[in-house]
Design goal:
alpha+beta; Jelly Rolls; 6 helices; 15 strands
Length: 330
């Protein structure tokens, strides 16, 4: 017995209905084939599909843009590094170094006495603990009152110094039996002396006359195997070639004590275990301290004589006249 031939329209409607149901997630009203149900289903399905595609495309484009940007940055860096190392310096890794673009975090100096404390620094904590030369020191100095006279040098910085209980003269070796490096003001003046003791116990001195008063300045000292250099505010003032190499003296660093601490104050001691170039010394950080950082006050108009036997007569006369004028007796 022959089977009835199915109506092909039923298969067409059923297939179309199932396809629309899968596209929208629901078949409600579509099986009937009404125009309203079909229109609603198609509209909803098309809306959902369009929104999902746009979000996917947007994410893909953002990722592609980021990848392109990173690739360009890497290419530029590779080119800059190639130019820096093989043609001309581009990056400046240390203050005062060669280059155009400053890169922080590579300064190899060690900073002590920041703004306030100036206590002793143990040699074991120094970056030059095992060196007697081949190093650079920066120090901010403030001469507050040079009128505190003395027959002896007024030491405000020393390394490895052994102080004599009883002074034997009016030189640095009259005060100290041993030292590596010393900085002081000469008696009765604002002249600076920087000294290294050589292996034959002789002083290798540099004298800088008339350093600033009541105005901070940066003292830089470069101790080499055969010479000593002294800079003021980044400017090389004097160089001394040693008669002999520095004596093998290592030790703690100390600042001024006693009455000298009222006359001369120091901050921002910075030490490098290498010899800096002139540009590195000139641009070294931190910035020079201000008078307020030292708690500066007005300079006394009268002298404070520790040793009166060799007080400069001209300075005494000048101060006496100044006091007479201020009192109105002249």
């Amino acid at each position: 017995m022959s089977q009835p031939i199915p109506n092909p329209n039923n298969y067409i409607i059923r297939g179309f209905t199932n396809g629309i149901s899968k596209f929208t997630g629901t078949g409600t009203g579509l099986g009937i084939g009404t125009g309203t149900g079909l229109g609603t289903g198609l509209g909803t399905g098309l809306g959902i599909g369009t929104t999902g595609n746009m979000a996917s495309v947007l994410k893909s484009n953002i990722g592609r843009i980021i990848a392109y940007g990173l690739s360009i940055i890497i290419i530029i860096l590779v080119i800059l590094f190639f130019v820096h190392f093989f043609i001309t310096p581009i990056f400046k890794f240390i203050p005062g170094g060669s280059g155009i673009i400053s890169v922080p975090g590579f300064d190899d100096g060690t900073l002590f006495w920041i703004k306030t404390t100036t206590g002793p620094i143990l040699n074991t904590t120094l970056p030059i603990a095992n060196q007697i030369h081949g190093y650079t020191i920066n120090l901010d100095v403030f001469v507050e009152n040079p009128l505190q006279f003395s027959t002896m040098p007024r030491i405000f910085f020393s390394r490895g110094a052994d102080k004599k209980e009883t002074p034997s003269g009016n030189t640095l070796l009259g005060l100290l039996s041993n030292y590596n490096l010393v900085a002081a003001l000469l008696p009765d003046t604002n002249d600076l002396i920087v000294s290294v003791l050589n292996k034959n116990n002789n002083m290798e001195n540099i004298i800088v006359p008339n350093v600033p008063i009541q105005q901070p300045f940066r003292l830089s000292m470069v101790v080499m195997e055969q010479a000593l250099e002294v800079y003021i505010n980044g400017k090389l003032l004097k160089t001394r070639k040693f008669l002999d190499v520095p004596k093998d003296v290592k030790g703690d660093i100390n600042s001024s004590t006693g009455i000298e601490s009222n006359a001369i104050k120091v901050h921002n001691l910075k030490i490098w275990s290498r010899i800096l170039t002139v540009s590195e010394i000139r641009e070294a950080t931190p910035a020079l301290s201000s008078p307020n950082d030292f708690g500066a006050g007005p300079m006394s108009s009268s002298t404070n004589c520790v040793y009166s036997s060799t007080v400069n007569a001209t300075d005494i006369t000048s101060n006496i006249l100044s006091n007479i004028i201020k009192s109105g007796n002249l």
